[in-house]
Each structure stands twice: as C-alpha cells, then as structure tokens.
Amino acid sequence: MAQVSSRLRVRKDNDVTQVEFVDRNILDEANIQQIREEIERLVEGAPRPKLLISFANVDHLSSAALGALITINNKVKSRDGQLRLANIDPQIYEVFKITKLDRIFQIHESTDRAMASFA
C-alpha cells in the first residue's frame, strides 16, 4: 500500500503544535478526511493538547471542512486542551461569522497573536 503524503505542515513551538495546510483549496472529501485524521492523531498524542491551526495558505474551504474543524474542536476540549485558529482569509472568515462558528472558535488575526493567547 502506497504511503499517502501529508496534507499538513506540522511543527512544535514549545508546547504548542502548529498546523498549516498544504492545499490552497480544502474541498475534496477524501483530503478533508485525511486532514481530520492527521489532526486527531496530533490531539490524541498529547495529554492536554495546545493546537494552532493556520489558514495562511487557504483560499477555499468546504462545509465538510468546517464540520471536520468542529469535530477536532470537540476532541481538543474533551482532552482539556486549547485550539486556536489564525490567518483566516476575510472571505472564509465571513463564512465563520454567518454560521456563528466565530463564537465557537478562538480566531486570531495572526499566528503571533494566537500563540500569545495560549494559557
């Protein structure tokens, strides 16, 4: 079975795991499932995960991707962790506002601001 390449760039910064997307468009169901599974493994690998997801490279996001983010958020909370989102394109942020997801997620303008917000 061929190794599937990661859809994410991951790096640790102290106790915070920073995740960036490889793809500009997160629309394909199979890719979204792979992304969700990769992030869930990161969450499950930490006793109290601190996760920062940067959308710096993302131009388009499907509703299925939003659903995956909600699932990830619930997993992080169930492990008494913290999740931050950063660098969201204004058009994508508008979707977060319309769907009221901006009330569920802690969204920051920049990675630096998101990093500073961790307790």
Describe the structure.
The protein has 119 residues and is of the alpha/beta class. It has a single domain, classed as STAS domain (Transcription Regulator spoIIAA, 2-Layer Sandwich), CATH 3.30.750. Helix content is 39%, strand content 24%. A five-stranded mixed sheet has the order 1-2-4-6-7. A two-stranded parallel ribbon has the order 3-5. Helix 1 (29-44) runs parallel beside helix 2. The mean pLDDT is 94.
Summarize this structure as a short list of keywords or feature phrases.
5-stranded mixed β-sheet, 4 helices, Transcription Regulator spoIIAA, 24% strand, alpha/beta, two-stranded parallel ribbon, 119 residues
Low-confidence stretches: none
Largest sheet, strands/sense/barrel: 5 strands, mixed
Estimate the mean pLDDT confidence: 94
Describe the strand arrangement of the main beta sheet, using strand numbers: 1-2-4-6-7
- State the CATH architecture: 2-Layer Sandwich
Count of discrete domains: 1
Give me the CATH superfamily: STAS domain
Query: What is the number of helical segments per DSSP (H or I, 4+ residues)?
Result: 4
Structural class: alpha/beta
Integer-rounded radius of gyration: 13 Å
Give the CATH class. Answer: Alpha Beta
What does the overall shape look like? globular
Whole-Å distance between the termini? 42 Å
Approximate strand percentage: 15-25%
Number of strands: 7
